Amino acid sequence: MSDYGGAGCCRCCFSFLLTSGLTTLFLWLSLHTSKPVCSIQDFYVSALNKTLNSTSNHSIFFDLKLENQNIDKGVYYDAINLTFYYGPNISLPIANYTVSGFHQGHKKYTHRKDLVDARGVPWDEVFRGVSNGSVAVFRVDLATTVRFKVISWKTKRHKLDLKGNVKVDDSGKKVETKGIKLKNGGQDLGCYLARLRVLVVVSVLVLVL
Hints:
alpha+beta, Immunoglobulin-like, 8-stranded antiparallel sheet, 13 strands, 28% helix, elongated
C-alpha cells in the first residue's frame, strides 16, 4: 500500500514538474522579443557622381528599411533620429533627419526614403578621391526607443542605438549591392540571446527529468 502511495506521489510530482517546466518555457517563448532590423537599402550622393562633373548638389538620398521579424508581436516606434557623418570625424554631423513614430505589425517591413542636405563635407577633395578609384565612407547612426505589443499590452521602452558605414564610389552610389545592416556599437546581442535560449531549454529539461 505504501509502495502504491509512493508511486502515486512520484507521478504527481513528475506531472507537476513537467507542467511547470512547459509553462515556463511557453511563457518565455511568448514574451521573448526580437528588436527590429534596420538597414540602409540605398544611398546616393549626387556630388560624387563622376558623370555629372559637378559638386554643387550636396543632397544625399537614402532608403531606410525597418523590419519587424517577430511572428506575433507588433512594434511601436518612437521618433527615429538619423545622424549622418563623413569619414572618421564623428564629432561633427553633416546632416540630421527624423522619422515620425509609428506602429508596425508583426512580420512587416517598411521603407523611409528621403533627401538630406549635407554640410561641412570637403566635396572637391572627396570628388577627386573617388575619381581616382578610392571610396568615400559615410556613417549613419540611428537612435530611437521601441515598445512591443504582446497580446493586449505594451512592454516597456527598449533603446535602439545603431550605426553602420556606407562606402560610396564614383557613381555616387553605395558600393555594396545588398542592404547595409545597422548594428549596435557593442557586441552583437544575437549571440547572447541564442545562448540564453539554449540555457532556458536545458534548464527546463533538467527540471522535468
